Amino acid sequence: MNWRGLIDRYRDYLPFSEDVPIISLNEGNTPLIQADRLSEIIAPGKGLKLYLKYEGLNPSGSFKDRGMTAAITQAVYEGAKTVICASTGNTAASAAAYAARAGLRCLVLVPEGKIALGKLAASLAYGAEVLSIEGSFDDGLAVVRQIVERQPIALVNSINPWRLEGQKTGAFEICDQLDGKAPDWHCLPVGNAGNITAYWMGYQQYGKGLPRLLGGQAAGAAPIVEGRLIEKPETIATAIRIGNPARWRQALEALDESGGIITAVTDQEILESWRLLAAKEGVFVEPASATGLAALRQQIAKGEIDPSGKTAVIVLTGHGLKDPGTAVEQAVQPRTIGATVEALERYLGG
After folding, report:
1. What residue numbers bound the domain in which 12 lies?
2. pLDDT over 90 for what percent of the chain?
3. What CA–CA distance (Å, rounded) separates 28 from 12?
4. Which of 56, 102, 312, 329 is the most exposed place for a label (fewest CB within 10 A)?
5. Whether residues 251 and 294 fall in one domain
6. Is residue 151 assigned to a domain?
7. What pLDDT was estimated at residue 2?
8. Domain boundary among 128, 159, 190
């Protein structure tokens, strides 16, 4: 079957008009990678079937493309000429890519000095007008919410309901890839909380079973876990550095309905999981993407989750090249040797 994008593939489950022109970059169809080595590390001898849903292989490098194909498609259908978003990076890159595909003007507001280089570079390359604001993501979201009330501009943040319609297709794909059934546990990072909300929508609609949800927030940006706004969120996981999630209430509903768990993990736990994904399974992600694994490791270690014979899917939300700076900072630096076979032999001999 030729993959033509999410809206074509799952149109029967999406509320688009028949005559809507689809704006697509052939997003979706991302791999579900079985992670046997990692399973034995985090739950030795327990028979945990662990899978990695690698959303970093979407066209702009993150899961945001699922929602953006839907949001931009509907924006074009409604006659929009300009779109706008606030972003910690991934939404900006995705909005810029799909706006370019549709021939729309795109404005993105990013917090000054708080966006990973790979995401900023992508947004600029796609031709977006990037505005660095003196404030946080939450400040930027407040501004874009106001401007769309005053100007004929389409807002494409996850408060746009069409974003959730696209993102819920991730749940459809997981069920299809698991031979028509949902996993026991679905683990993912939680920042603005649109993704956890969308996945729960998808599982409910698809009718292939309901997993329990496990959401991970960074300890320095964990408003849902702490039950309060975080005025100055801080974490190495820039994609989830959000102190006031737009989908807070819906996330809590999804967690409650699924019998799920939301927990906070430290930056150290995130980086440990980030290294494990690359070194043990060959999957390179941005730090925030490792938060779901960090949460699962933590909850298994605490005895809150019994992994025995269970199936767990961890959503890896963005590619490692989204944040090359962190990758270089955390890596062991290359050693210099002479350009001779003897030098190489000396190195091999220790």
Report:
1. 6-61+163-329
2. 85
3. 16
4. 329
5. yes
6. yes
7. 64
8. 159
Residue 1 belongs to some domain of the structure: no
Give the number of other CB atoms < 10 A from CB of residue 223.
22
348 in any annotated domain: no
Mean pLDDT of 219-248: 94
Give the pLDDT band of residue 142 (cuts 50, 70, 90). very high
Same domain, yes or no: 315 and 180: yes
CATH number at residue 296: 3.40.50.1100
Tokens read off for 220: 């320095």
Are 56 and 36 in contact by the 8 Å Cβ rule? The answer is no
Q: Are residues 147 and 171 in the same domain?
A: no
Pairwise CA distance, residues 232 & 226, whole Å: 14
Tokens representing 281 are 């399974």
pLDDT score for 247: 93
Together in a domain, 52 and 70 = no
* Number of domains observed in the structure of the chain: 2
* Cα 35 off chain centre by: 19
Q: Report the mean per-residue pLDDT for the chain.
A: 94
Cα 124 from Cα 62, distance rounded (Å): 16
Give the confidence band of 323 by pLDDT, cuts at 50, 70, 90.
Answer: confident
Do 50 and 139 belong to one domain? Answer: no
> pLDDT tier at 3 (50, 70, 90 boundaries)?
low
For residue 340, being part of any structural domain is answered with no
| Listed residues 159, 174, 197: the one ending a domain | 159
C-alpha dihedral sign at 199, 205, 210, 212: positive
pLDDT digits (tens, 9 = 90+) for 242-265: 999 989 999 999 999 999 999 999
Strands (E), 22-167: 32-34, 49-54, 82-86, 105-111, 129-133, 154-155
Quick one: average pLDDT of 200-205? 98
Identify the residue whose tokens are 């106001």: 146
Alpha-carbon span 70 to 179, nearest angstrom? 26
